[in-house]
Write a structure and sequence with these properties.
By secondary structure, the chain is mainly alpha-helical. The chain is 61% helix and 0% strand. Among the domains are: 5-207, alix/aip1 like domains (Serine Threonine Protein Phosphatase 5, Tetratricopeptide repeat, Alpha Horseshoe); 259-344 and 373-560, alix/aip1 like domains (Butyryl-CoA Dehydrogenase, subunit A, domain 3, Up-down Bundle). The protein is built from 20 helices and no strands. It is flat and about 120 Å long. InterPro entries: ALIX_V_dom, BRO1_dom, BRO1_sf.
Length: 761
């Protein structure tokens, strides 16, 4: 019932401390790992409760509940510290440390338990079972301290002090065994202390005869605290992820989206330049049959560069990979087209709904129009649409290109022996071995390979750069009240990617110079090379193999790029549409509630039977009765006043008095109301009695049922003066069995008016 974020955070931290204490209690204290984990979690729990004690009053600004009150959490923090100290006592005992140190650790743990017991002794904040456990733990740790201190006294030959401390320890554990045995079992500790006390007394009685000092004369045991409350440091978990990190104002969100589009365009443009330059270099080298030409000076073995290309093609799956990718391409393109169409359809439907509601509610519909919000997504969708169209158009070209190189790619997939047999041999060009031209070409080709490797690293670096512009846009919005997205984005992109674009331009320029030098050196190499048919045929085959490798690499890369499924774009569209629908439903609910609260009910005129003319006579009525008006819920309706009794003439009195008793039964159904008086007739009101009194209809409203005509019980009449002066005889329905009807006295009296019955409207 308390709407406070500070209260919620306090409760969560309390649960963290409680869970840490449970984890510590479940540890196995028979090994070092369990002891360390228990001590760590107990100290964390103590820190959590201590943090609540220090901050709960300021977090709530009101009196906290009992469970998180400073007294309660302060006691819990002390209990956690006491348990952590006890864990260190167990660790020291297990490691057989010096008895003096163990005694100090136990004495400190006893103090922690004692302080915790004192804090909650006279309060009902903790369960009653906690008090005896705290008291028992205090006695047990004090007994352990006295026991280990007695061992130290024995080592120092203070036998009287040894007996005194053992007697005190025996008294302590005896108290625990007698009072708190149902909570903690101390039988082993009792036996150990009693054995030591019996042996010490026996030795002292027969050998040492040392005086046993009183308890108050014993030196106090020192204390050693090895624990402290772990401070609460946010975040508590190393795996913490801020769920609200991406919740930013709409302007910032739109600016970040546009910035991401600018960044993607820049990165794609730079990467496209590098790939185009690499393809150009590969094409030039393939046309010159490099580096195979300078490696093939022997003329009868497969050049190492061709073997490397063959190994790379085989590792990537060879022609089977390309065949499968080409086979899957149409289906995946169709799948991407369906995803794109579905994503855009979601945007269109939500935008149409938003426009309809904006037209209906006009200025009341206060939220960002969908057409403005979806601009970045529609631009991204248009980009995907262009990619799809290009892929469909290039499908035929890809297949034609693959078919032209398929046989050569298949040759690259063969083993080295078959590959060597397929390449024509030539006479060794012995004059070229060790020549300066070959060495120059090798150096230039090595430099070109280095440029390609640097370019690949540059491409990876460009893709991995990630900079969050949210903080920049938030700062700009806070300072200026608006965001100049273009200026901020351009400056940041220049700052982040400026060095990369400069390196790319340097790489392109360096490649251009290297290719020029390679072409010049290759011309000299061609002049020096022995010219014969076998040599030319072999060089042509090697050149085709190099071209086939380049085409294979490019085909695989393009096909894999084209077969990517665009689920990420679909998820973005569905997420934003779902968020907009939720926002729309909430806004519609608020609008409906605000419209319902507006006053719009008109005032209801009085019914005709409650209005009279100036002369006191009722206006003319129609032949049908006037129905009762509906009463608005929430207003308490008032029933109409009963009309005065009608004046009965002598004629009617005699007529009614002479009626036979058999006809004076209970009233039948309500007669039709009297016809309206003829206009212009001025008969006096008291001349003739109406056949039926014209009372108002019974009102209908909640809690007041409509009039239900029932025969009047005998002896009930609001107009009677006595029990037996009724104008009508009682109904035979209500007389007792075997009793004759009462005679009807024929004396004038007030007629009981029969009210007309109107059904509820």
């Amino acid at each position: 019932a308390l709407a406070s974020l500070g209260y919620e955070k306090t409760c969560v931290l309390f649960n963290c401390g409680a869970l840490a204490s449970q984890i510590a209690a479940e540890q196995n204290l028979d090994n070092d790992e369990g002891l360390k984990a228990a001590a760590k979690h107990y100290q964390f729990a103590s820190g959590a409760f201590q943090h609540i004690k220090d901050t709960v009053l300021s977090a709530l600004n009101r009196e906290p509940t009992v469970d998180i009150s400073p007294d309660t959490v302060g006691t819990l923090s002390l209990i956690m510290l006491a348990q952590a100290q006890e864990v260190f006592f167990l660790k020291a005992t297990r490691d057989k440390m010096k008895d003096g140190i163990i005694a100090k650790l136990a004495n400190q743990a006893a103090d922690y338990y004692g302080d915790a017991y004192k804090q909650c002794q006279y309060k009902d904040t903790l369960p009653k079972e906690v008090f005896p456990v705290l008291a028992a733990k205090h006695c047990i740790m004090q007994a352990n301290a006295e026991y280990h201190q007695s061992i130290l006294a024995k080592q120092q030959k203070k036998f009287g002090e040894e007996i005194g401390r053992l007697q005190h320890a025996a008294d302590l554990v005896k108290t625990v065994a007698s009072r708190y045995d149902e909570y903690i079992n101390v039988k082993d500790l009792v036996d150990k202390i009693n054995r030591a006390l019996t042996a010490a007394k026996k030795d002292n009685d027969f050998i040492y005869h040392d005086r046993v000092p009183d308890l108050k004369d014993l030196e106090s045991i020192g204390k050693a605290s090895l624990v402290k409350s772990t401070p609460v440091v946010v975040p508590l978990s190393q795996k913490f992820t801020d769920l609200f990190e991406k919740m930013v104002p709409l302007q910032v969100q739109q600016s970040v989206s546009v910035y991401n589009q600018r960044k993607a365009d820049l990165v794609n443009r730079v990467i496209a330049q590098m790939r185009e330059a690499t393809n150009l270099a590969n094409g030039v080298l393939a046309s010159l049959n490099l580096p195979a030409a300078i490696e093939d000076v022997s003329g009868d073995t497969v050049p190492q560069s061709i073997l490397n290309k063959s190994k790379s093609v085989i590792e990537q799956g060879g022609i089977q990979t390309v065949d499968q990718l080409i086979k899957d391409l149409p289906e995946l393109l169709q799948r991407n087209k369906e995803i794109l169409d579905e994503s855009l359809r979601l945007l269109d439907e939500e935008e149409t709904t938003d426009n309809d509601l904006r037209t209906k509610f006009k200025e009341r519909w206060q939220r960002t129009p969908s057409n403005e919000l979806y601009k970045p997504l529609r631009a991204e969708g248009a980009n995907y649409h262009n990619i799809l169209n290009k892929a469909v158009q290039a499908d035929g070209q890809v297949k034609e290109r693959y078919q032209s190189h398929r046989d050569t790619i298949a040759l690259l997939c063969k083993p080295e022996s078959e590959l060597n047999a397929a390449i024509p041999s030539a006479n060794p060009a012995k004059t070229l071995q060790g020549s300066e031209v070959v060495n120059v070409l090798r150096t230039l080709l090595a430099n070109l390979d280095e440029v390609k490797k640097e370019r690949e690293q540059l491409e990876n670096d460009l893709k991995s750069v990630n900079f969050d512009m949210t903080s920049k846009f938030l700062t700009a919005l806070a300072q200026d009240g608006a965001i100049n997205e273009e200026a901020i984005s351009v400056s940041e992109l220049d700052r982040i990617y400026g060095s990369y674009t400069q390196k790319v331009q340097e790489s392109l320029k360096k490649q251009e110079e290297l290719l020029k030098n390679i072409q010049n050196a290759h011309q000299e190499f061609s002049k020096m090379k022995q010219s014969n048919n076998e040599s030319n045929l072999r060089e042509e085959v090697l050149k085709n193999l190099a071209v086939a490798n380049d085409n294979f690499v490019e085909l695989v890369a393009n096909l894999k790029e084209g077969t990517k499924v665009w689920l990420k774009f679909q998820n973005k569209c569905s997420d934003i549409v779902f968020a907009r629908k939720t926002e729309r439903d909430e806004l519609l609910k608020d609008l409906q509630q605000s419209i319902a609260r507006e006053p719009s009910a008109p005032s209801i005129p009085l019914p005709t039977y409650q209005t009279t003319s100036a002369g006191g006579t009722k206006p003319a009525t129609s032949s049908t009765p006037t129905p009762a008006p509906r009463t608005m819920v929430g207003t308490k309706p008032q029933p109409p006043a009963r009309p005065p009794p009608p004046v009965i003439s002598a004629a009617s009195s005699s007529s009614s008095a002479s009626a036979p008793s058999g006809t004076a039964a209970a009233p039948a159904a309500a007669p039709a109301p009297a016809p309206a008086p003829t206009p212009g007739a001025s008969a006096p009101a008291a001349s003739t009695a109406p056949s039926q009194a014209q009372g108002p209809p019974y009102p209908t409203y909640p809690g007041y049922p409509g009039y239900c005509q029932m025969p009047m019980p005998m002896g009930y009449n609001p107009y009677m003066y006595g029990q037996y002066n009724l104008p009508y005889a009682p109904s035979p329905v209500y007389q007792n069995p075997g009793q004759a009807p009462y005679p009807a006295p024929q004396q004038p009296g007030y007629l009981f008016p029969q009210q007309p019955y109107y059904p509820q409207q």
